[in-house]
Amino acid sequence: MALTAYLSDRNIQVLAVVRGDSARKNRIRESNSVAIVECALGEMEELPERVRKVIRQKHWNEMQPIDVFFHFAWDGTFGGGRDDMYLQNRNVKYALEAVDAAAELQCGLFIGAGSQAEYGRYEGKLHANVPAFPENGYGMAKLCAGQMTRIRCRQKGMRHIWTRILSVYGPYDGSGTMVMSLIKKMLHGERASCTKGEQMWDYLYAKDAAKMMYLIGCYGVSGKVYCLGSGVAKPLKTYIETMRSVINPNAEVGFGDMEYAPGQVMYLCADIQDLIDDTGYVSDYTFETGIRETVEWEEAQDEKD
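Predicted structure:
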């Protein structure tokens, strides 16, 4: 959503590929620069023709090449699905089929959305050369997809870039995430239960993540892996206290109400120097300004409800 808005605001034409049965597809507003293409992950072989049909309907230039294919789609990102090995294996297949669809559309660059889960637990800043030891099926499949789509792109004569995304927050984030769940509780005067908050964490606002993706699409180096984060690690407790100060300084927060999950990652931070050097990226948001916008968005959703 953030990337679509970022590109649209710059009058860049966007073909937003969504699942036909998606409950969230109505959030994407079609405009002169945004068109929706319905296609499920298992229907990738049909994507090129569906894209061409929508381009004709929008009266866009059919001869204009597609610059970048951003592959964000993935099944089983939460809960038990992360260790559903057959499901995660299908995701790798879908990613390869996405490369084939991009190649048929004569796309110049394929950018995949990987995850910090590819690394497993690591006590240091994450970058492309940190050894990857994923601990769940989700991380294993993301790692495999990144490696295999790179080879497939080479076979198809396309450029390839893989990103590993850390913790992104902002409007449209899932209600079960730490940031969104605590925002809801603080806004509604409920006790916000959490762990002791000793984890050192790296949060990236969605609009900054979108800017990163755009710049990688413009200036990223083919064959590279970029980690997406703010590049700064702070105790989780500090982030939560910032949220409380923005929403309600008197909000009740139960630090230590919850135990750490088994295998809890205690340190997460991206090394974004390579990304900065290659693309010239500069952040537009602090955690506080990002939270303020996110809270305003959540309050607007409450008013709609």
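Summary: The CA atoms of residues 85 and 137 lie 6 Å apart.
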